[in-house]
Design a protein that fits this description.
By secondary structure, the chain is mainly alpha-helical. The chain is built from two helices and three strands. Strand 2 and strand 3 form a beta hairpin.
C-alpha cells in the first residue's frame, strides 16, 4: 500500500507542477502581449510627436533644435529614398512578361526609367555591366 501512496503522491505532485507550468506559460504570454502592445503604443506616440515637431519647425512656429538637425536631415533623405523605391515598385508592378520576351536567359531586366538593371533571380538592383548579382550571386547576362 505504501508504494501506491508514494506513486499517488508523485503523480499528484507532477500534475500540480504541470498545472503550474501551464498557468505560468499563459501568464507569461499574456504579459508579453501586453508589453508588446504598450511598446507599440509608445512608438506610435513618439512618431506622432516627432511628426508634429517637424511640422511646427517647417511652419516656422518653433526653431529646429541643433540636436535634432541631423535626425531631421536623415528623415528627409529616407523620405526621398522611399519615394524612389515606391516609384520603382510601381514600375515593377506595371512590367509585363511581354516586355522581356526575347531577352537572353539569365539576362538582367532593364529598369525603364533609370536605365539600370535588376537581377532576374532576386530582383535586386545590379550595376550596368555587372557579371554577377551582388545580392544572390546569380550570373547576369550570357
Amino acid at each position: 500500500m505504501a508504494l501506491f501512496d508514494r506513486l499517488s503522491k508523485g503523480v499528484a505532485k507532477a500534475a500540480e507542477q504541470a498545472k503550474f507550468e501551464a498557468d505560468k506559460l499563459v501568464r507569461v504570454n499574456k504579459l508579453n502581449t501586453e508589453v508588446s502592445e504598450l511598446e507599440k503604443q509608445i512608438t506610435q506616440t513618439l512618431v506622432g510627436v516627432g511628426r508634429q515637431a517637424l511640422e511646427l519647425v517647417e511652419r516656422g512656429v518653433i526653431p529646429m533644435p541643433p540636436e535634432l538637425e541631423g535626425m531631421a536631415s536623415q528623415v528627409q533623405q529616407m523620405e526621398s529614398q522611399l519615394a524612389a523605391k515606391r516609384a520603382e515598385l510601381e514600375a515593377a508592378k506595371a512590367s509585363k512578361y511581354e516586355d522581356i520576351v526575347g531577352a537572353a536567359p539569365g539576362a538582367a531586366v532593364a529598369a525603364p526609367e533609370e536605365g539600370g538593371q535588376f537581377c532576374p533571380n532576386c530582383g535586386e538592383k545590379v550595376q550596368q555591366g555587372a557579371k554577377f548579382c551582388p545580392s544572390c550571386g546569380q550570373k547576369i547576362g550570357a
